[in-house]
Design a protein that fits this description.
The chain is mainly beta. The chain is built from two helices and 31 strands. The longest helix has 14 residues.
């Protein structure tokens, strides 16, 4: 006689139990989960996490494949490290996308991509981070696009330790960083296209092999109100140190008060077979400096199919650099364009579409270049 009552109790208990939230194609923050990390931890492969405006004081680690984290308003969805958390977003899973949000005030990186395949960083603002704005290391088959970095005490955009990389850095803006773009051992299908690297201490540095730099504006890199690197470099537009077989074409490199383009040696690595075609390199303190050392003399570094540098060059001059300011005291960035509706462009680079940039006085001040 007690069984019906027990069965009814079971039904009653089941009816009152909390329901599992629907974690289908889209998850909302903070409506379904109070933090971005909680949503990431609960999400299934392939989900999109939509983040409403707010300041999220957290560090987000993504280990689930094919997630998309998308802010609903780029300048108002803010992951704030409060100068006490290491990185804003850390990607270590394949095929992850981060879109349309801001990461600021971290003691290391705004967005860190490590050992990830197929990553995509789109329309992200990274400001006032102690090392890098967007940092990709040992990562392949990715895109960093239409993003903005300022106040980085190392570099605004960094790609390193990949060969072949198959990475595209396109349509970004870096200003008021120690270095705008830094490529370290980033070789093979490495494309830096249509970016603006202006008003940093140094515009571009790389030691790459077989990388392509096309359609970039590299100008006015002598910004005192920016963080300084330990080596104190200042006033340099574009530097290749020990790099080989790189293509630098249709770039405007101007108004860098130290050197526009410098080619130098790195210990036993010599600059070799670098090609500079159809660039405008003008109005710099010294437009081109060839600085290969006796220990590693260069070979066949050619400009515009006529002028080639071989052997030993002049030493790099010592720069008289201002001291710099702390990363968290660099001016806040201006509002940046929202990610448009509709699909993003193909990840495969179209190098031919990138033309010589216009004069820097006419260049846009947002990531809408390229």
């Amino acid at each position: 006689m007690r069984a019906p009552y027990a069965f009814a109790a079971v039904l009653l208990f089941a009816g009152c139990s909390p329901t599992t939230p629907d974690l289908g194609a889209e998850i909302t923050v903070p409506a379904q989960f109070g933090t971005i990390q909680a949503a990431v931890d609960a999400a299934r492969e392939g989900a999109t996490i939509l983040v409403s405006p707010g300041v999220y004081k957290e560090s987000v680690e993504v280990r689930t494949k094919a997630l998309t984290i998308r802010g609903l308003q780029r300048g108002s969805v803010i992951i704030d490290g409060e100068v006490k958390r290491a990185s804003g977003i850390v990607l270590s899973a394949p095929d992850v996308s981060v879109q349309n949000l801001t990461v600021r005030n971290h003691t290391e990186n705004g967005v860190a991509v490590t050992r990830s395949q197929g990553f995509r960083i789109s329309y992200v603002t990274a400001s006032n981070n102690a090392l890098h704005g967007v940092h990709a290391t040992d990562a392949q088959h990715g895109v960093i696009e239409q993003s903005y970095a300022s106040g980085s005490a190392d570099s605004g955009f960094y790609v390193g330790q990949c060969k072949p990389c198959d990475v595209v850095v396109r349509g970004n803006v870096a200003e008021r960083n120690a270095v705008g773009y830094e490529g370290v051992n980033a070789s093979g299908r490495m494309f830096v296209l249509g970016n603006r690297f202006s008003d940093n201490r140094v515009g571009v540095t790389t030691n790459a092999e077989d990388a392509t730099f096309v359609g970039n504006l590299v100008s006015d890199n002598a910004e005192a109100l920016s963080p300084a690197q330990a080596d104190g470099a200042f006033g340099l537009g574009f530097g290749i140190v020990g790099g080989t077989k790189n293509l630098v074409a249709r770039n405007l490199i101007t108004r860098n008060p130290g050197v526009g383009v410098a080619l130098g040696s790195a210990e036993d690595l010599a600059p070799m077979d670098n090609r500079f075609f159809d660039n405008v390199i003008t109005g710099n303190g010294q437009d081109v400096l060839y600085a290969a050392s006796r220990r590693a003399p260069g070979r066949n570094n050619c400009f515009d199919r006529e002028r080639c540098y071989d052997g030993v060059g002049d030493p790099l001059p010592r720069s008289s650099a201002p001291r710099g300011i702390p990363f968290n005291q660099v001016a806040s960035p201006p509002l940046q364009p929202e990610m448009p509706d509709g699909p993003l462009p193909e990840m495969t680079p179209n190098v031919d579409k990138y033309v010589l940039p216009s004069h820097p006085a006419a260049a846009p001040t947002s990531a809408a270049v390229g």
